[in-house]
Amino acid sequence: MTGHRKPEDRQRPDAVDQIALAWSRERPGTPVESIGVITRVWRAAKLLGDERRRTLSRLGIDGATLDLLSTLRRHGAPYEMTPAELKRATLVTAGAISQRVVRAEAAGLVQAERTTGGRTLTVRLTDQGNRQIEDCVTRLLVHEDSLISHLSPQEREALTELLRKFLDGLIERLGADTNPGQVGEPSSSMATDPAARAH
User: For residue 182, what are the CA distances in angstroms to 52, 74, 154, 179?
Assistant: First the structure.
């Protein structure tokens, strides 16, 4: 029948299934369906977060600098934003923006225009910064595309829509706000939180 998978089409039970089965056995009546979703999301986040950090290390850039450069690049020519615009786009504090700008400026990746009193007016990508973010984004996204190459185009589309619905519902229920990062960065706190193993 439509909507039902044949037994031979189902994946073999994995460690997450075993956790859910064990709780069902030990605590009959306790709802365990969330384990199949949330525990897998936690484990995927841990794997992706670790791999993102390894990839950025190979590319010679840290996540905060990547976020700053990609935010400026995605803003469009002339790749210039005010600190307030950067704060709104990245959902980090003004102090964090200031620290990122200082580090990137010292590396020659951005140029800040300041008042005589030292207040930053605008931040702009330099030619060097533009070259670095172009190279990083290309290499990063090509690599991360390979991480989902085991999914068909149809499966990717279906998973994208399910995750969108899942995340939207979480944000609404928890009253939370979130920023996925300018290149799609997994949250470091999500990737390392011990609650990922709590089930």
Answer: 13, 8, 25, 8
Considering its fold, how many domains does the chain have in total? 1
88-97 residue pLDDT tens? 999 899 999 9
Interval 171-183: pLDDT, tens: 999 987 655 554 5
CA distances 39 to 19, 45, 95, Å, are: 10, 10, 34
Q: Determine contact, residues 72/62, Cβ cutoff 8 Å.
A: no
Which segments within 56-119 are labelled E, that is strand? Answer: 80-81, 110-114
Cβ distance 39 to 172 under 8 Å?
A: no
Residue 5 placed within a domain:
no
**Count of CB atoms within 10 A of residue 199's CB?**
16
Which H helix or E strand runs over 120? strand 120-125
6 within domain boundaries: no
